[in-house]
Amino acid sequence: MTAVFAPAPTPPVEILAVLSLLCPEVVRDIEQNWNASVSDYARHLWRPVARPASGPAIAARSILREVLHQRLGAIMQPEEIGNILEEFEHRPVIQSGLHCLLLMDRITFDALLLAWFGAVENGLSAFFGFMGTTMTMETIGREGPGWLDVGDDKVNLFGMGRHKLCRKSVCAAGPVTLNRRALEAVCDETDASRWLGTLLASHDKVFATAADALTELNEDLVAGWDRSGMALPVLIDDRLAAAAMARHLDHDGGLLSRLLFEPARRRRLEHALQEAASSPFGRFLPNATAYFWGIREERVRKLVLENGQLIEPDRPHGLSIPFERPHLKQALLDGALLPDLFLTFLVLAILPRVRVVGGLRQIGYVALFHSILLAALDENAPEERDLAAELQVRENAWGTRVIDEKISVREQLAGLPEGAPFADLLRQYRSRTFAETTDDLKLVRENARWCKIGRASGL
Question: Residue 1 above 50 pLDDT?
Fold first, then answer.
């Protein structure tokens, strides 16, 4: 008798067709790992990346290494830094799409968990995660970085009045301390003392900003959940991107200086930005500010470029910064400016040839940022022509809400061994396939932006 084997499940063709319109590199990842385990998918995302080959890419990688070295110097011994940066040279990957929230936020936890899997499965001692910090402390009612989700209630994390929470941005609000009384009350009433104890250990510490507090507390939480230290999370944010951008502006002949400050080059760049915004994929683009965000009175401010000045629209006494290289560089170093998402992804990922792993909107706008840069390059300049050739390979991947548990983090951790829940979760996800975990790409199927793209394209 001849055995009959059922064919291996395949991903939904219509969804892959839609994704292929903008980011075929993401589709290749899905196709190659459809029946693989989630941990194998994570291993695949943290695979090696070709080293920079063109002049601008090599320079951008050097700058990124400098700012990462500085960040690592704040949390580890010098002898450890070289090893981590050498690992990063071979597998330069940044998990983006992390919210600047405590890891008790379900989506943030699940995204960081996938990154931890990727690092562990590749034998890395550390991994990098980007946490955006430009949002306000309270985004909508009782949600946002100022709130701690304990599963059945929300705790005001810093004890800050709600009128302040909605008016202050995470990267600028400070100094802050933890709301000890509220945390202790939760600890008395719940079974969550294991992770609340990690927070209460810092109850008397004064943090310079809320972003600093969330970064340090999240690193402490992971250390408690991975006591063997299998992979260390290194959390970076917009401020590291600002430091990298300032170093790019050190050089008047650097690519970003040319694109921003040579009038003909900036016109070409702005034309590329407008073309992308008016394309069928324009709904993916974040275009809320002109190249940079301003920071004033503990709040991130939208800026527009008028008459050679970055200004706050309709605020005569707001920020006003000359759009000139020395002024912008100093404002970045002083904390008065942060790069927008376009410049952030240029300096952290696209130019230094780093794979960036993010969510369903991000895989769209990173692909667009990539195409915008290509359109702005001058093919008559040899080093820009070399960069254009290098950019034919996009390092853009989906990794936020691939793991998308519908239960709270507290419920996910319940019953797992103390000190080793991450290792236990890794064992579980080694036996769950990518197809099963994503429920046949249900999240993509239900995503409003991708659905509109599919309908507009007749798919």
Answer: no
Token reading at 208: 């310079």
Answer positive or negative: Cα dihedral of 188, 190, 193, 195: negative
- Note whether 64 and 244 are within 8 A (CB): yes
Q: Is the pLDDT of residue 378 over 70?
A: yes
Residue 343 lies inside a defined structural domain of this protein? no
Q: Is the dihedral of CA 104, 106, 109, 112 positive or negative?
A: negative
What is the extent of the structural domain holding 162? 16-240+396-456
In a domain, 434, yes or no: yes
Contact by Cβ (8 Å): 341, 323: no
Rounded to the nearest 10 degrees, the angle between the axes of helix 421-429 and helix 106-121 is 80
Residues 6+ apart with CB under 8 A from 99: 105, 107, 108, 131, 132, 145
Tokens 């949390």 belong to residue: 75
pLDDT of residue 6: 59
Kindly write down the DSSP assignment for every residue of 86-107, as one continuous string.
HHHHHS-EEEEEE-SS-TTSHH
| pTM of the predicted protein model | 0.96
pLDDT-based confidence at residue 459 (cuts at 50, 70, 90): confident
Pairing relation of β-strands 309-311 and 320-322? antiparallel
List pLDDT tens digits, range 87-132. Answer: 999 999 999 989 899 999 999 999 999 999 999 999 999 999 999 9
Please report, for residues 105, 285, 404, 414, the alpha-carbon distance to residue 408 in angstroms, rounded to integers and kept in the order given. 8, 30, 11, 10
Query: Token match 């194998």: residue?
Result: 40
Please give the tally of structural domains in the chain. Answer: 1
Torsion of CA 160, 130, 199, 118, to 10 degrees: 150
DSSP single-letter state for residue 283: G
Separation of alpha carbons 270 and 260, rounded Å: 9
Cβ atoms of 89 and 398 within 8 Å: the answer is no
Contact 362/68 with Cβ under 8 angstroms? no
Token digits of residue 105 = 């936020």
Whether 414 is in a domain gets the answer yes
CA distance 88 to 127: 8
For the ranges 165-174, 189-198, 292-301, which has the lowest average pLDDT? Answer: 189-198
Query: Mean pLDDT in the chain?
Result: 94
Answer whether residue 121 is part of any domain: yes
